[in-house]
């Protein structure tokens, strides 16, 4: 699968007039992605967080107090990357480093009360956004949407996996 460098919109005069429904659907997904990315960036900025830092907080909220090694494994990043993320989260009061009770060489990254409250606020915001976007949909329309998007995501995952293995989807 090739990276998409730009998107066209229905209002774009350069967009081909004979676009297929597949192209129109793809353009809508790209528009949705851009808008969601902008919303995410703005929302995280209100909490003084980056996507990487909040990802670490989501993992920490799910796993509980964790070593940096286990966080790096869960996030599929290097230990150096985790150290920088944790340093930033410690400096801003979202997490602390605590002595590991069973391994004196290790430390546990632990969510602070501020971090826990922030994750809860982000979860509440996610539920509110989901309700705002999808709550008004009739149940059968939402069911069809879920089925369609699941299929699209399955195909995208397969294309990305094939590209990673050196195939050409």
UniProtKB/TrEMBL annotation:
It comes from Cryptosporangium aurantiacum. Gene3D superfamilies: Winged helix-like DNA-binding domain superfamily/Winged helix DNA-binding domain. Residues 22-154 form the HTH marR-type domain. InterPro entries: HTH_MarR-typ (IPR000835), MarR/SlyA-like (IPR039422), Tscrpt_reg_MarR-type_CS (IPR023187), WH-like_DNA-bd_sf (IPR036388), WH_DNA-bd_sf (IPR036390). Pfam families: MarR. Keywords: DNA-binding, Transcription, Transcription regulation. This is DNA-binding transcriptional regulator, MarR family. One of its GO terms (molecular function) is DNA-binding transcription factor activity. One of its GO terms (biological process) is response to stress.
């Amino acid at each position: 699968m090739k990276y998409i460098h730009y998107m066209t919109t229905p209002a774009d005069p350069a967009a081909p007039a004979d676009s297929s429904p597949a192209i129109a659907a793809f353009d809508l997904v790209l528009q949705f992605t851009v808008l969601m990315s902008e919303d995410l960036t703005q929302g995280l900025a209100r909490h003084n967080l980056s996507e990487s830092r909040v990802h670490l907080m989501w993992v920490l909220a799910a796993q509980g107090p964790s070593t940096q090694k286990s966080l790096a494994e869960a996030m599929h990043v290097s230990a150096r990357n985790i150290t920088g993320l944790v340093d930033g989260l410690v400096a801003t009061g979202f997490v602390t480093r605590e002595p590991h009770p069973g391994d004196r060489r290790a430390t546990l990254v632990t969510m602070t009360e501020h971090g826990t409250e922030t994750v809860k606020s982000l979860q509440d915001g996610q539920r509110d956004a989901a309700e705002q976007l999808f709550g008004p949909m009739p149940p059968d329309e939402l069911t069809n949407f879920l089925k369609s998007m699941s299929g699209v995501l399955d195909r995208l995952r397969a294309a990305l996996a094939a590209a990673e293995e050196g195939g050409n989807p």
